[in-house]
Design brief:
The protein has 117 residues and is α+β, with helices and mostly antiparallel strands. It is built from three helices and six strands, in the order αββββαββα.
């Protein structure tokens, strides 16, 4: 059986990437993870069990929303490029989605600013 992925797991997964910064621009219940100043994950533990909002390839985002009931278009974000994952979840590959989000943001950075990860 798959391990249930929690908001705490999401915090640890986000913090593990190179050049990651944690800030709280929206208040103490909303940690925001950035890489070289660009957001790749917004967590929300205030409403219910928790949620993580992540950058996603638009085609992947559509497929994920159609496949997993825990995944919705990005909460308060561009619905084409962001998804929100309700946590805890045992079925969603949340750690992979966090890595994908970090990699998408890094890929959009100028080559000289990209951390190696």
């Amino acid at each position: 059986m798959a391990k249930t992925f929690t908001i705490e797991d999401a915090m640890e997964a986000c913090a593990a990437f190179p050049a990651t910064e944690l800030s709280y621009p929206f208040g103490e219940d909303t940690p925001v993870f950035k890489v070289v100043g660009k957001v790749f994950a917004i967590l929300n533990a205030e409403e219910g069990p928790g949620m993580v909002t992540l950058k996603a390839d638009p085609e992947d985002a559509k497929a994920l929303v159609a496949t997993f009931p825990e995944i919705t278009p990005g909460y308060h974000m561009n619905k084409k490029h962001w998804i929100s994952v309700s946590l805890p979840s045992a079925s969603v590959p949340a750690a992979d989605l966090i890595r994908d989000s970090w990699e998408l943001v890094v890929a959009g950075l100028p080559r000289a600013q990209r951390p190696q990860g």
